[in-house]
Each structure stands twice: as C-alpha cells, then as structure tokens.
C-alpha cells in the first residue's frame, strides 16, 4: 500500500509544506490539510497500519518521530516537542502509545468550517454574536 492510495498527493504535499520547518508541525492542521480528517474510520485505520512500522498495533514516540517520512520519504523528522504534541493529541488513555482506534477517533474529531478554521468536538461551530447597541 502507498499512502497516495488513500490520500491525494497534492494534499500531502500541502500538509508537508505547512510544517517544513522544525517546530511548525501542528497535528490538527496536518490532519485537516492532508485530508485525513475527512476519511472514514476504516480509511484512517488503513493509514495507521501504514505508519505502524513494527505492526504492533500501536505507535510509540520512536515511530512518531518518523511520522512525516511516512507521507514523503524525504520529509524531516519531528522534533521531540512535536512528537510529544502528536502523542498528546491522539493518546486517549495516556499510556504513551497510540492505538488505531485512538488515532481514528482523534483524526476524525477535527471539523472544518467554510472559513477554513478548525473546530474540535461534535461538529458544532460557535460563531460570535454581534450586538447592535444604539445610543439614544
């Protein structure tokens, strides 16, 4: 399996471009730009299996360090802080590893608005209410 069997090469390139420099990787933004957050649970799990180097069913910090390289072989390694951020974003039970179910749940929880902003949760978007105040 190639990652481009399930994700657009253009979306992957755009996601990698956004985090080209060290300490610029943001998991939620990457999930959105790459198209991962739009995928079905089974598709996210297919991508997870592709990323899981040792096929243990879990991703640990060592595997996460090479996360971007699974999308493009020449991509950079994640920094230690980025690796920890990605772990924190998808490690549902705090055991220091990410399972396929946890990854799928987290990736698919990212919602999109027409403005391009990212929303987490149940698909709700909170919009500011503008009040008109008239002075008499």
TrEMBL record:
This is Parvalbumin. Residues 39-74 form the EF-hand domain. GO terms for cellular component: cytoplasm. Pfam families: EF-hand_7 (PF13499). Ca(2+) 1 binds at residues 52, 54, 56, 58, 63. In muscle, parvalbumin is thought to be involved in relaxation after contraction. It binds two calcium ions. Keywords: Calcium, Metal-binding, Repeat. Ca(2+) 2 binds at residues 91, 93, 95, 97. Belongs to the parvalbumin family. GO terms for molecular function: calcium ion binding. It comes from the Eukaryota. InterPro entries: EF-hand-dom_pair (IPR011992), EF_Hand_1_Ca_BS (IPR018247), EF_hand_dom (IPR002048), Parvalbumin (IPR008080).
